[in-house]
User: Which sequence fits this backbone?
């Protein structure tokens, strides 16, 4: 188990990383325990709410997944993720989801959040510095 989950105090980002690690390993209950501690200390942490909702979704706990998705919707997130969260919340309210659909939704939401991260570079470092452009096009 990660050190952050062993009851030691850690920065929220470290705890979120540990929760995401547990989620990706399929240890959804452990991820929920870790991420709940983050949300308790930092209720405005979008990544914690996302992975809490995904963990609950994978466990079939739709009402808890919906609660965290609604909280996520109220936080500063990207426009594509916001639209997808709205659709998922609507889907959770209309009826039960099949396991393959739960898996698809979880993957789609995770990929969208990763794609819209503010720290993500729009152009690779070498392109920004002009390193690859000086000899382009070069065909051996």
Assistant:
């Amino acid at each position: 188990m990660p050190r952050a989950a062993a009851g030691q105090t850690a920065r929220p980002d470290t705890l979120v990383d540990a929760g995401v690690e547990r989620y990706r390993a399929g240890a959804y209950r452990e991820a929920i325990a870790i991420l709940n501690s983050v949300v308790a200390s930092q209720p405005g942490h979008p990544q914690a709410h996302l992975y809490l909702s995904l963990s609950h979704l994978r466990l079939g706990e739709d009402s808890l997944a919906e609660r965290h998705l609604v909280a996520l919707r109220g936080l500063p997130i990207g426009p594509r993720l916001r639209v997808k969260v709205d659709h998922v919340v609507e889907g959770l309210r209309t009826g039960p989801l099949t396991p393959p659909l739960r898996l698809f939704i979880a993957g789609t939401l995770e990929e969208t959040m990763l794609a819209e991260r503010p720290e993500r570079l729009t152009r690779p470092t070498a392109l920004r510095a002009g390193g690859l452009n000086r000899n382009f096009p070069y065909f051996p």
In short: The chain is about 65% helix and 0% strand. Residues 1-8, 120-128 have pLDDT under 50 and may be disordered.
